[in-house]
Structure formats: C-alpha cells, structure tokens
Amino acid sequence: MSVYCPGIKLRAQAHSLTVADSLATAYNAAPMAKQKKHPTGTIAQNKKARHDYFIEHRFEAGLVLAGWEVKSLRAGKAQLVDSYVLLKDGEAWLLGSHFTPLTTASTHVIADPTRSRKLLLNKREIEKLSASVQQKGYACVCLSLYWSKHLIKCEIALGKGKKEYDKRHTERERDSDRELQRAVRNKGKED
Q1: DSSP summary character for residue 38
Q2: How far apart are CA 99 and CA 66, in angstroms?
C-alpha cells in the first residue's frame, strides 16, 4: 500500500514511513547545530558588604555594559570589594566596581575599568531604595554579579551598617557553628 500526499509528489510505503516523515519541512526538521548553553553561576561576590552590613532587602538589577566588559565578566575578571550604589535623579548607578579589561578584547577601545555603570531597576524599586537610604545608617551596596540565562544581573541590597561589636558577635557565631560542624563530622571517627 502506498501513501499519496497531494502537495508533495512523493510515494512512500505505509509500513516503513509515516506521513509526518514524508512531510519534513523547515519547521519540523531536526536542528542543524547544537544550541549553546547559557553560562551559569556567580561571577563575583562582595563578601565585605555582608561583613559590614545587616542585609535587609535584596533587589535584582540589570547592568548596562559595553562589549569588552561582557567578555571580561565571562572570564571572571570582576571585583566588587568597594562597590556601592548611588541613587541620583531617579536612576541607580554602580560605582567602585572594577572590571579588568582583557588585552585581546579591548584593543580598539580605551577601557576604563572603574567607570560608573547604570543599573536597570523599575521606578517603584528606585523609590523604595531612595526612601530607605535617606534614613540614617542605611546604605545600598552591590552583593554579587551573576548570570541569569544569557544576561548579567547584579544583586543589590539595602543594608544597615554594623557596629564593631556586631561584627565580633557575627565572627563568634561563625566560629561556634564551625566547631559544631567539625564535632558532628568527627563523631563517628573517634571510635
């Protein structure tokens, strides 16, 4: 028995090929090349911010970047140690971050590694941040840079500054937790 398709002059045996096999188009054909996976994971973290501030609210913001900066971030050449967020004229800016330019990527551009980078937040988030930063003791800092599919995102946070005794208390808690984990891990090995 043979199958006849009116749009395509093709005869196929019914027991060996189905109608879908004989009607392969650009829409249902197998892909020609394997799709690239998006990079994942954290690019850089600001551990000093977690040490100096009590983190209260977190926000995810996009970044306006140049091409050489994206290539630099793909290579993991970013530092956020002294970075902070400046809220000015209804816009948010990332200041103090350092993206080391790659020598191969920025040959035709004069790269400024510490330039101000615009953060992409909606109006409601900017208003909430600016109202909170006006209070005494609050600051807006960058916590990390990470990949979200093919986009680079910046996690910013509203933090309240820690006093010196708060920092010592946090270190004491961390040390006691580490001792407890070590004791639990070595409990079965003592026998």
Answers
A1: P
A2: 11
Look at residue 101 and give its three-state secondary structure.
Answer: coil
CB count, 10 Å around CB of 54? Answer: 15
pLDDT tens-digit map of 4-15: 555 555 444 444
Buried b (16+ CB within 10 A) or exposed e, 10-45: eebeeeeeeeeeeeeeeeeeeeeeeeeeeeeeebbb
Q: How many residues are present in the chain?
A: 191
- For 125-167, the three-class secondary structure string (H helix, E strand, C coil) is HHHHHHHHHCCCCEEEEEEEEEEECCEEEEEEEEEEECCHHHH
Closest by CA position to 65, among listed 119, 105, 103, 142: 119
pLDDT in tens, 27-48: 666 666 666 666 678 888 888 8
- Report d(CA 78, CA 96) in Å as an integer: 11
Residues 142 and 94: beta-carbon distance below 8 Å: yes
Beta-bridge partner residues of 17: none
pLDDT in tens, 130-160: 888 888 888 889 999 998 888 899 999 998 8
Instruction: Specify whether the CB–CB gap between 133 and 107 falls below 8 A.
Output: no
CA distance 74 to 158: 27
